[in-house]
Amino acid sequence: MTILQNPAAPVIVPAGALPRHLLSAGDLDRDAALRILDTATRLDQAIAGREVRKLPTLRGRTVVNLFYEDSTRTRISFELAAKRLSADVINFSAKGSSVSKGESLKDTALTLQAMGADAVVCRHSSSGAPERLSAWVDGHVINAGDGTHEHPTQALLDAYTLRRHLAPGGSLEGRRVVIVGDVLHSRVARSNVLLLSTLGVRVTLVAPPTLLPVGVDTWPADVSYDLDASLVGADAVMMLRVQRERMGGAFFPTEREYSRSYGLDSRRAALLARHGIVMHPGPMNRGMEITPQVADSAGSVIVEQVANGVTVRMAVLYLLLTGGRDE
């Protein structure tokens, strides 16, 4: 099932202001994105060195993690982010809940509304589900990944990681990032293209033609089929997971053929700029899209991305639920 996006005109917000809900990376202008990244930096500094890594900012607020799809990193990251801000956290999984008895998304939303949820973090297998949910609850809705649509907080943590390594002064303007792999099924790729282009990054998508979506030529990114040529001098490469669970047919001949043409090995990683970094949203298919040697190399920031995800999601929850009043 695909839930269509609301065709109504988007609400116009002042530059730098966050929308009521974070449903798409496209909801953020440059000032709003930088505000989140700067807030994440300040929160990281605020809890650094504390014996108890918690702040009282969201004490008394309730955050619900509404996950209709399996997840490890994202769910735990949001849970930890909310708890570090002293919020009460409710974890809702479709398995073992009334959803398995046929309860609809709307009825679940009304239940959460009755319980007074201040924020709902929603992951769903249907594109557009978080947007539909936002019409039924008074609290803030954060898209934690919907179908093959978007994953905005992943793009924010990727931008945060890029800025820490490539832009100590804060600006990613003019940097070049190569995104490689299963773009067709990747919500991470869509959100990163939107956000990074907003921040002035030149993005190049590299994939076999069968794993590029229709209309990709309208995206604010270059498209290439030649991985080696695209990597030369790039500031970062972001490998995407091949999502076999979303593939109903054969999109490439064999795993070995895919790895030979689009896998990242040590030879290809050496084509990056001297300061270049290797990224991956996880979980990785080691040996297929990326070799273990590269995944565990000094230039890899894959584990750091996980840690940065907690900090960035703290910033998103803080700004949405408080409006940044105590910034």
Please give a structural write-up.
The chain has 327 residues and is α/β, with parallel strands linked by helices. It has two domains: 25-44 and 53-150 and 307-322, Rossmann fold (3-Layer(aba) Sandwich); 152-302, 3-Layer(aba) Sandwich (Rossmann fold), CATH 3.40.50. It is 35% helix and 14% strand. The chain is built from eleven helices and nine strands. It has helices at residues 30-47, 73-84, 105-114, 129-134, 152-166, 187-198, 227-231, 255-262, 266-269, 292-295, 302-322; strands at 62-67, 88-93, 119-124, 140-146, 176-180, 202-206, 222-224, 236-239, 277-279. The strands form two sheets. A five-stranded parallel β-sheet has the order 7-6-5-8-9. Strand 3, helix 4 and strand 4 form a beta-alpha-beta unit. Helix 1 (30-47) crosses helix 5 and helix 2 (73-84) packs across helix 11 (302-322). The termini are far apart.
Overall shape: it is globular
Mind telling me the CATH superfamily name of the largest domain? Aspartate/ornithine carbamoyltransferase
In this structure, how is the largest beta sheet organized? 5 strands, parallel
| Sequence stretches where pLDDT stays below 50 over 5 or more residues | 1-11
Strand content: 5-15%
User: How many helices does DSSP assign?
Assistant: 11
Q: Gyration radius, to the nearest Å? A: 19 Å
- Biggest sheet, spatial arrangement of strands: 7-6-5-8-9
- CATH topology term of the largest domain: Rossmann fold
Structural class: alpha/beta
Q: Please count the beta strands (DSSP E, at least 2 residues each).
A: 9
User: Could you tell me the mean pLDDT?
Assistant: 89
Per CATH, the class of the largest domain reads Alpha Beta
| Tally of structural domains | 2
Give the distance, in angstroms, between the N- and C-terminal Cα atoms.
Answer: 41 Å
Give the SSE order as H and E letters.
HEHEHEHEHEHEEHEHHEHH
Q: Which percent range fits the helix content? A: 25-40%
CATH architecture of the largest domain: 3-Layer(aba) Sandwich
